[in-house]
Amino acid sequence: MERRTLDPDQVISHARHYYSAFLSQMGDLMARPRTTTHDRWSPPPVNVVKINFDGALFVNEGESGIGVVAHDSAGSCLAWLSHGLPNCLSPELVEAKAAREALSMAQRLHWRRIILEGDCLPLLQKLKSLREDYSATGPITSDIFHILSVFNCVSFSFIKRSGNSVAHSLARTSFGLQGVGDLPPTALAYLLSVL
């Protein structure tokens, strides 16, 4: 059998072509959803989980907190978390870490069709673009892009702070807890008192 010698330039050209086709298909699979904007929270469509995330800064204490809450189409709470982040005082970093936690939760719970909703429009636009991020949030958005590959369908939704109040309240409390199902009575009582 005769052995062919491949031209390195031709191999590189083919690799670029297949890589470009791969990125195009990934974009189609991810559906590069538009970023929708809402004033008020609403439940997701059937068979989709909506995950709201938020971050809060406590400048005087030198800390921040993140809150995440997931709901189904009936509006029932499926899972939530609330914990602090010491020495993190950049609003965009805190929001990015909250988004990463939200997606990690969805991955752990094997949800495949999700809406990621938050009140940090610049971050949501970065995530929607799927472009490499050279800012301070770059390592976190890189982690997020890796996690996004496990989902069948992802949409990004911007909601004003007033519509993201449960995630925001969880971020402000920094309970250091997480759970599947309804919020615990102590968290629920606090949230109802501040909403």
From TrEMBL:
Name the UniProt record assigns to this protein: RNase H type-1 domain-containing protein
CDD domains: RNase_H_like (cd06222)
Domain RNase H type-1: 52-172
One MF annotation (Gene Ontology) recorded for this entry: RNA-DNA hybrid ribonuclease activity
Signal peptide range: none
Domain of life according to the entry: Eukaryota
InterPro entries: RNase_H-like_dom_plant, RNase_H-like_EbsB-rel, RNaseH-like_sf, RNaseH_domain, RNaseH_sf
Cited Pfam families: RVT_3
SUPFAM superfamilies listed in its UniProt record: Ribonuclease H-like
